[in-house]
Write a structure and sequence with these properties.
194 residues; alpha+beta; L-fuculose-1-phosphate Aldolase; eight-stranded mixed beta sheet; 8 strands; 44% helix; 19% strand; L-fuculose-phosphate aldolase; metal ion binding
Length: 194
Amino acid sequence: MALSKYQEIRDFAKFGKKLVDSGLVESQFGNISIRNGDKMLITRTGVHLDEINKNSVVELDIDKSSNLDTIASSETIVHRTIYKNTPALTIIHAHPFFSVIESMLVENETIVPINIEGEYFLQEIPVVKGATGSPGLADKTSQALRTHKGVIVFGHGTFSAGKTLEEAYFITALVEQSCKMKYYLDMAKRSIMH
């Protein structure tokens, strides 16, 4: 059952505020989208995620670009490509601190969570590279989200997909928790060895 536009905007506002309050994004960075048939609602560029209202979101076609793309998030192409290539109904792009750090420390292209929750729900977290809002990044991210719940863009942030914004938020928070625990464990191991 499709949500009403009113309910969708309420969900954008709720999870935008949660993302900021939990430190997963700075207010003016990151973006959120919801698929609705062959359309998607996505936050506009420069919107403060903790102050979302009906003017903060733009509706776009998934299959083709339009002149409205210029006011939508700079990551619109990534959201579009994920919707085209995965069963995702919602996407959250955040900039969690420890996820970004771990993406730059990883020696291969995946991070393996050490915590039970991360291991159970995520198994592993792919790290992809690409320029912000580029077709290459869009392709790599959508490919990774075909088989994983969340992905980290090297030095940039996370993309999490779900059936609901609640699920996408949960994945975003779990990726960050997993990266934070790994960072501190690795740091503790290094201090013991020295």
